[in-house]
Amino acid sequence: MFKLTGKKAIVTGGGSGIGKAIALVFARQGAEVHVVELHEAAAYETRAEIEAAGGLVFIHTCDVSRQDQVNKVFEAIGGVDILVNNAGIAHVGNLENTSEADLDRIYQVNVKGAYNCLQAAVSRMREQGGGTILNLASIVSHVGIPDRFAYSMSKGAIHAMTLSVAKDYLSDNIRCNSVSPARVHTPFVDGFIAKNYPGKEDEMFEKLSKTQPIGRMARPEEVAALALFLCSDEAAFITGCDYPIDGGFIKLNN
Ligand SMILES: NC(=O)c1ccc[n+]([C@@H]2O[C@H](COP(=O)([O-])OP(=O)(O)OC[C@H]3O[C@@H](n4cnc5c(N)ncnc54)[C@H](O)[C@@H]3O)[C@@H](O)[C@H]2O)c1
Q: Which positions fall inside the Ketoreductase domain (predicted)?
């Protein structure tokens, strides 16, 4: 079960955190993995790990917010069976202290980046007779979290785009789902703690860990396991769904 042999999988932001864990597990399950990543050095590290484990991987340096770059990369890859829209950036702030520039930046990467890759993938999947898409949403797509105005806007959009794409491409045999993690311990979390709570890193890490009723953050590999299921043929009956992976955050935080 859960084999991806013969499938071409594109993982955006596969140089770090959740995307890296997804790239590693997809390669282990037999996929030809294409890491689409802004940071070349990070992509090289993922490639080295996959190759050391005997997997098949190609890396593409690309800013997903740039449609010209995305189209060029998808053209070079040639076909796609699985797309994981994972590349994303964080922002801390409420409505009033979120600047226009911050809002635009979050939109460009988290929303337009996903749109660019969805658009490039869907036509190719249709030509091939089908495909599977997984988008990285978040608990903020579903519940209110303090000081996440722009980020929530972007992840709400991811959830809505997932439903829209799932609906429009049903007859093309393209499945589209999303996952909504609570906090996952990745450089993304470490980065925003360091940036937004300097000097209070340990205290904030502890505090954020405890906001999951289960008492800790997720591991990237735990999200990758769910991604593998949803992108495998075993999940062929699942489309237009969002899966929280949140240690009880959405339903048990009361
Ligand atoms: N870590 C969490 O707690 C958490 C929770 C819920 C959802 N998510 C979502 O999961 C996804 C991955 O998060 P992570 O924690 O692994 O982050 P991360 O920062 O560890 O990795 C993100 C990767 O995306 C790449 N990237 C950023 N901007 C890019 C761009 N414009 N073009 C191409 N690549 C780009 C980065 O270089 C990095 O390698 C994000 O969409 C994030 O919003 C994360």
A: 7-173
